[in-house]
Amino acid sequence: xxxxxxxxxxYFNHCWPAMxxxxxxxxxxxxxxxxxxxxxxxxxxxxxxxMVDTHIYPPNRSSDLKWIIQSNPGHHAGAIQAMVDGYxxxxxxxxxxxxxxxxxxxIQNETWIRTMMHDSQVEGIFASCRKFHxxxxxxxxxxxxxxxxxxxxxxHALQHPTMWILDxxxxxxxxxxxxxxxxxxxx
Length: 187
Prior knowledge:
By secondary structure, the chain is an alpha+beta fold. Helix content is 30%, strand content 18%. It comes from Grammatophora oceanica.
């Protein structure tokens, strides 16, 4: 997921080619780039698509690359829109796992991720924003939060992503009042 700002385009240009070369997990995966650009011309979007199609995911690869370009529903809402639309439009149907990364998130060592993905009892891999709960401070919540920049989950394990609530101040998903099927959160 990307809103194609200068920072994320920099990562696409300068970091992703090497990451893809060194990551069998990402090389072997089908890719859906869900872009929600703000104030970006069609020519700029075409240039980004060409750059990604040529340098990051060349046409001779064995897996698929698909682009979805949507209007940006807002900084925070856009953070989970790709996940909501993925279920709504069946983009995830037929897949064992979904890996959701922002363009500026890099996987430097996939060994642990692959180990977790091969464990039949693991339904999701999340980056937790907080290991503790705090009251009355900015960026604190009484619930669990998931960093939306990096999430991995089995699509069959989560059928209702619209129940996720986006934190008002951050790009994290708070779900303290909504039970999720991921019981092994702390394991």
